[in-house]
Amino acid sequence: MRLSKIRLAGFKSFVDPTTVQFPSNLVGILGPNGCGKSNVIDAVRWVMGESAASRLRGDSMADVIFSGSAARKPVGQASVELVFDNGEGRLGGQWASFAEIAVRRLVNRDGSSQYFLNGSRCRRRDITDLFLGTGLGPRSYAIIEQGMISRVIEARADELRGFFEEAAGISRYKERRRETETR
Ligand code: ATP
Ligand code: MG
């Protein structure tokens, strides 16, 4: 499964609707300091359900909304949509027949978020559920950020096991069991 494009509007420095295309398996994003490269990665993590503002380099969730510049007024909401190519049917179940899967998150200034799967409103949980065990997700290894390699190398045995369980696709079932046991 491959991320094929990201549509951003009102998210951090991307005030105007912007589509970032990922046409092949290897794409580099280049630009001067402060042009918004890391904001693109923050956008991916945010849509996946990241709920800690600090992990998105902000103090509160509303910090992801464009806060204005010398030339532009702030806006009221931020929206990001990730479009995945599911041509190989990697996402199974009810999603197997969808060639494309679009995951969207929208947030307003009051901090309330809405999530959408292929245009239909859903819960945050539906998004995290969808990607659990695929290696994607807000804190998964699909995004290797600064310091992560050393975190893996220095991980305790149980933390390391978490990475292997995600890669093997069993974290999904462990999460379900944990939920059942705590109910
Ligand atoms: P570097 O090469 O230094 O890592 P970068 O290209 O990764 O830079 P980012 O950190 O993605 O840059 O972008 C930082 C820019 O985004 C700053 O100019 C900052 O003002 C702007 N920015 C971040 N949040 C918001 C927001 N909520 N509203 C408006 N602009 C924002
Ligand atoms: Mg950066």
Automatic annotation (TrEMBL):
Signal peptide: none annotated. ATP binds at P32, N33, G34, C35, G36, K37, S38, N39. It is found in: Cytoplasm. Required for chromosome condensation and partitioning. Contains large globular domains required for ATP hydrolysis at each terminus and a third globular domain forming a flexible hinge near the middle of the molecule. These domains are separated by coiled-coil structures. Belongs to the SMC family. Homodimer. This is Chromosome partition protein Smc.
